[in-house]
Amino acid sequence: MSNDRPTTGPDRPTADTPRRPAAQPPLLEIDGLSVDFRLEGSVVHAVQDVSLHVRAGETLAVVGESGSGKSATALSVLRLNPSPPCVYAGGEIRFGGRDLLKLSEKELGRVRGRDIAMVFQDPMTCLDPLQRVGAQVAEVLRHHTGISRAEAKEAALAALDEVGIPDPALRYRQYPHELSGGLRQRVMIATALVARPRVLIADEPTTALDVTVQRQILDLLVTLQHKHGMAVVLITHDLAVVAETADRVVVMHQGRVVETGDVLDVFDRPADPYTRRLLAATPRLEAA
Ligand SMILES: Nc1ncnc2c1ncn2[C@@H]1O[C@H](COP(=O)(O)OP(=O)(O)OP(=O)(O)O)[C@@H](O)[C@H]1O
């Protein structure tokens, strides 16, 4: 189905110019993960025996319809699923030679934000409405590095500038509600990246934004990834976004991985019937 090949985006890979960096050991590896939500009188097997990995400098997209277990998988990496009702029922999440599922809360607190950071669809899940945005970015650094207040402020201003926020000194003093949705998203990205994590997990980071701003935020994530060599796990239901930004893709359906591979291979020759249905339901790809 070569006509179905995604053609959106200027830096779309071709068979001759793969975006994937030379193979290196995975930075983050999920192996056989199972996650249940134990509710009164019932159990939801949200994630069942899921394995995936991502390398430095690589973008792995996780796609699937609503309820397929994408967020539950992503949140498991930093054990952010609400517990109860969440129970990590099996598997390992390996990072830096350790199983994150086995770390104490204190140990995991050092990984969160410093080694592995997350951004979400709604920035207000991360930002404190009552605190000035600059202080929130600076606080992440103070927490992880213990640098002085003045140094943290300087680094936070640089981080706001890096994510394309105009007049960082003015914005630094503002509260989240004083910013547009796009700027709030940029602040959340600054907060996530200020401590230079090695892995960024982005859960539907552009879904709530209008199309032009979506484009800008995606471009920003790609630019920052290239600049810092991060591994990115991008959770999305938007296959056009996957075509434009990801190296590899994992397709989830009903809590399981049904297909995984290079984006070009999977989109050109989907092996699983569910992947074929998902691709067929994306007119922007079909029309390409
Ligand atoms: N806190 C929770 N309590 C109970 N069930 C939950 C909870 N979080 C997720 N689930 C269930 O786990 C399953 C997987 O949900 P998950 O949010 O991971 O899907 P998703 O693929 O990320 O969907 P979406 O694209 O809508 O975010 C769903 O059946 C969902 O209802």
UniProtKB/TrEMBL annotation:
Keyword Cell membrane: yes
Domain ABC transporter: 28-279
SMART domains: AAA
Protein's membrane topology: Peripheral membrane protein
Subcellular location: Cell membrane
MF terms in GO: ATP binding
Keyword terms: ATP-binding, Cell membrane, Membrane, Nucleotide-binding, Transport
Keyword Membrane attached: yes
Principal place of residence: membrane
UniProt-listed Pfam families: ABC_tran
Alphabetical list of PROSITE patterns matching this protein: ABC_TRANSPORTER_2 (PS50893)
Stretches the record annotates as Disordered: 1-27
Chain intervals with Low complexity compositional bias: 1-12
PANTHER family in the cross-refs: DIPEPTIDE TRANSPORT ATP-BINDING PROTEIN DPPD (PTHR43297:SF2), OLIGOPEPTIDE TRANSPORT ATP-BINDING PROTEIN APPD (PTHR43297)
Similarity comment text for this entry: Belongs to the ABC transporter superfamily.
Protein name: ABC transporter ATP-binding protein
Organism: Streptomyces hyderabadensis
Lineage: Bacteria, Bacillati, Actinomycetota, Actinomycetes, Kitasatosporales
